[in-house]
Design brief:
With 89 residues, this protein is an alpha/beta fold. It has one domain: Response regulator (Rossmann fold). Helix content is 43%, strand content 22%. It is built from four helices and four strands; from the N terminus they run βαβαβαβα. It has helices spanning 13-28, 39-44, 55-58, 77-88; strands at 2-7, 33-38, 50-53, 67-70. It is globular. The termini are close together.
C-alpha cells in the first residue's frame, strides 16, 4: 500500500504527516510506503491508495482515485491512528 502525505509545498506539514504516519503504522503493525509530496505531485500520482492532508487542502485533492483523509492535528498520533486504521483495515 502507498500513502502520500500532502501539503502545499511538500516540505513542511507533509514531512510531519509522513513521519507520524510511519510511527502509527509501526505501532499498528501495518506495512505501507509513505511519501511526502506537494499538491501537484500528489495530483499527478495515481498509484497512492491513501492521501493524508490538512483540511484546508483536501478539496484540491478531490476527484483522484485515492482515498483522501483529512488530518486536523498533524501531531495527534491518536487521530492519525484512528483514521488510518479505518482506511486500511
Amino acid at each position: 500500500m502507498k500513502i502520500v502525505a500532502v501539503c502545499g509545498a511538500g516540505i513542511g506539514t507533509s514531512v510531519l504527516l509522513k513521519m507520524n504516519a510511519e510511527k502509527v503504522l509501526r505501532t499498528l503493525g501495518l506495512e505501507a510506503t509513505v511519501e511526502a509530496a506537494d499538491i501537484e505531485t500528489a495530483r499527478a500520482s495515481r498509484d497512492a491508495q491513501i492521501l493524508l492532508a490538512t483540511p484546508e487542502i483536501v478539496d484540491k485533492l478531490q476527484g483522484l482515485p485515492s482515498e483522501v483523509i483529512a488530518i486536523d492535528h498533524v501531531f495527534d498520533l491518536g487521530e492519525i491512528s484512528e483514521k488510518l486504521s479505518k482506511a486500511m483495515l
